Structures are given as C-alpha cells and as structure tokens.
Amino acid sequence: MSYVGPDFDPPQPRRPRRRPLVVALAALVPGALLGWAVYAAVGAPGDGGGAAVSASGSPSASASARDDGKKPTAGTAPTSGTAPAASPSPSRSRATARGPLAGKVVVIDPGHNPGNFRHTAAINRQVDIGTNRKECDTTGTSTNSGYTEARFTLDVAHRLRDLLQRQGATVKLTQDGDRPYGPCVDERARIGNTAHADAVVSIHADGSAAGNRGFHVILPEAVRAGAADTRPIVGPSQDLGARIAGNFVRVTGSAPSNYVGDGTGLVTRKDLGGLNLSTVPKVFIECGNMRDSKDAALLTSGAWRQKAAQGISEGIVSFLRG
Ligand code: ZN
C-alpha cells in the first residue's frame, strides 16, 4: 500500500495486436515444431540478433519493457513486502535424481528481492554489464494494492522449482529471500554460468500502463562488448524462449503482450545485464502487467501462479528434452 512506484516513463501508445495467433498456434504444435513456429514469427535464429530482434524492434518499444527503468524508492518497504521465510537450502543435490531431467541443471532467477526497498544505496551501485554500467538491481514493481513483484517472483520460483525437481532436474535459485538485497544483475548471471546451467529463466512481472496486458519472454540480443558476448547463447535462448512462450499460452490461457512484441510474446533486448553476461541459455519472462487490474487479478491468484509455473516448466522441459 505504501509502495510509491517507480512509474513507467513514458507511456507507450498501445500497439494493435498483430498476429496474436502465432504463439497460440505454436502452443498447439508439439515438440520442436513449436519452437520453429515461434521463430517464424520473430526471425530465424542465428541471423546475428538484429533481425531476430523483437518484432517491436525499435528502441522505444524495447524501452517500454520497464524492468530496468524502475528506480528504487527512497521510502520504506511496502507494508505487504514482507520477505517470505527462507528455505534452508535453495539448491539440493539431485545426484540420485530420476526422471526425464536427471542430470540437467536449471537456474531460476527470481527477479528483484523483497529487501531491495531497504537497501537503495546498495542496489543503486553501478555494475559493469559489458555494454555499459547499470544499477546493481532494482526494487521491481507492484500491483496497485501493494503486492510486490519480488514476492510474486519468489512464489512462482518456488512452484517452478518443485515442478522441475519432480522431473529430476537439479535446480538452483539465485536468491530465495535469504539475503538482505540483490544479488546484483552481474552476480545473477554468474550464478547461472558457474552452475553450468542447461537453462536459466529469470522470473518477473512488468509495471506498464493500465490497459497493457499479457506476458512476454525477453531473449538476449547478440552483443559483444567488454565482458559480454551473447553470440553463443542467442540461438539456444531463442529456442528456450519460444518453447516457454508457447507453453505459457497453452497452460495459462494468457495472451501474449498487447504492448510489446507485436503479438508474438517475444522481445529481444541488449540492455539487461542478466542476459548480456550470461554464457548459458537464458531468458526473462514478464508474466503479466502488475499495473493493469485484470492482469493483477491473475498475478495475485495462487492458482494462476501455479499455472504460470507449469507453463514455464513445460517450456523448459521441452527445451531440455529437445
Ligand atoms: Zn522485474
């Protein structure tokens, strides 16, 4: 309730939804064809990243995905932002795991941290993301009634971890509400790299203008600058993202974003440290828009969050099984 949102500059004009059926159709196509169908909507993989860039493509459209535009508030923590109890161990040894994902490592990155509101100086510290320097982390957004993105991301991460572990995967979280703030975006990337993850997904919800609805998956653009070289992961990350998008549509029934991605549910960006510094296949998912009342009703529903986790999980399973 006390959340004073970093608001979302400048409001983007709503874009007509084009080709909304592409991802929905892809959801009906099994296996590898699914990824292919979504590729067809956004451009072929391996074309250098430029053409595969979001159908939205333009810098202004990219900037409309608000995640990195959020500034920490100087105020106190939101009343509803209580950190959930930390799990004793975010990662478990699955050496004896059985299941289709046995031997696979998945890193889940719950965006932001419930404690970021109380550590604004620390999370404002600039870190090197290869292409430039950027804030260590941001507070994230919240619904108008004060349900924070950081709580949302942790909850979905826990549900997703359970689903993947049941398939035999080794799962690691970048944070589990068990640290005062952060980690910084560069460390979030390093955690996936160090784990030699087969797939990494960063969980978010957007904070865009009311009326902007739906989910989108953010893919790494090909960048080579400083410590960043995403060229080897662009192709596999597109495959991962397309499979997550298709399964997310199918399981949640949510439509792809009506404000970025031209109805494909896929957007490519080169301004996110968590993607730029990754050396393993990685995508972000913005599960919905917390500032839209209809999307907020979904995001605050535990039953819907379970479906969201299920959709993401099935996309990861599809990617890892090939
Ligand atoms: Zn976020």
Report on the structure:
The chain has a single domain (30-60, 97-321), classed as Zn-dependent exopeptidases (Aminopeptidase). Helices cover 34% and strands 14% of the residues. It has ten helices and ten strands. The chain has helices at 21-28, 31-42, 59-63, 120-124, 149-166, 185-194, 231-252, 273-276, 293-299, 302-321, and strands at residues 105-110, 126-128, 133-135, 170-173, 199-206, 216-220, 224-225, 228-229, 266-269, 282-289. The protein is an alpha/beta fold. Residues 1-18 and 24-94 have low confidence and may be disordered. The longest helix has 22 residues, at 231-252. Bound molecules: zinc ion. Zinc ion (ZN) binds next to loops.
Count of helix runs = 10
Radius of gyration: 18 Å
In total, how many beta strands? Answer: 10
Overall residue-averaged pLDDT value: 80
Largest sheet: 6 strands, mixed
Number of domains: 1
Low-confidence parts, pLDDT < 50 over ≥5 residues?
1-18, 24-94
